[in-house]
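User: Can you predict the 3D structure of tRNA (guanine-N(7)-)-methyltransferase? Sequence below.
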Amino acid sequence: MSDSLSTPDAPQPATGGEWSSHHPGVSVRHTRAKGEPRFPDGPKADPAGSHFERRIRSFQPRRSRVTAGQADALQRLWPKWGLDIDGQRTLDLPELFGNDNPVVLEIGFGMGEATAQMAAADPGTNILAVDVHTPGQGNLLNLADQGGMANVRVANGDAIILLREMLTPDSLDGLRVFFPDPWPKKRHHKRRLIQPEFLTLAATRLKPGAIVHCATDWEPYAEQMLEVLTAHPDFENTQPGGGFAPRPEFRPLTRFEGQGLDKGHVVNDLLFRRVQHHNHPSTSA
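Assistant: Sure. Here are the predicted structure tokens for tRNA (guanine-N(7)-)-methyltransferase:
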């Protein structure tokens, strides 16, 4: 299973309710009333609501089974480290993280293992991690809490709305998109995240010199990413001869990736730099 934003889960049986309390050796469940939130103090099911135009989405919201530990983390830690992408306010990133350290946006983190490893290895970099997968959100919060990683914030919702409505120009020091949904069918290619329009929006929020780092095990998508990034005027390849980059040591080898490599899959990394245009008026999305 891909550690990605939006790779659909296998169908899951309906859970019928959520954990309401925990007693040693006793499982207590209650049935939610219609409209009652899954986690009263946790992420909202549809944070942006109908405030923004309908458009082709690059992700599929997934509501698979949440473990008791993940549910506990969502309830306990969401008010402190969670963020609903409602599009209704502009984020002050130093205020959000409590410091002026560089901020990297990660779109799609799966169950969060790789994100937690990167946060632990580089405590001086803040990671704003976005996904729509509730179990993954709870798992990453749990990992950050257990490991004492105060440099992680978990955002729930649509990364496009986050970039366009809630982040200010030149506020990000990097962008990571690891194993996004490849949307392999030709008629679905328009749903792929790495497109010229997305890169134009992302460029307005990235500081000059910021790195966009993509990784995928789907070779046709890797070729499309390379083509789109190479052609975009706001980015340049960090590889002197062009092409794909070797996997940097700071990107952990995920369980999913290891399984793919065992099956002979090829994983391609792309590292492109946001370029500064001289005498080029700044644009806002």
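The radius of gyration is 19 Å. The longest strand covers residues 206-216.
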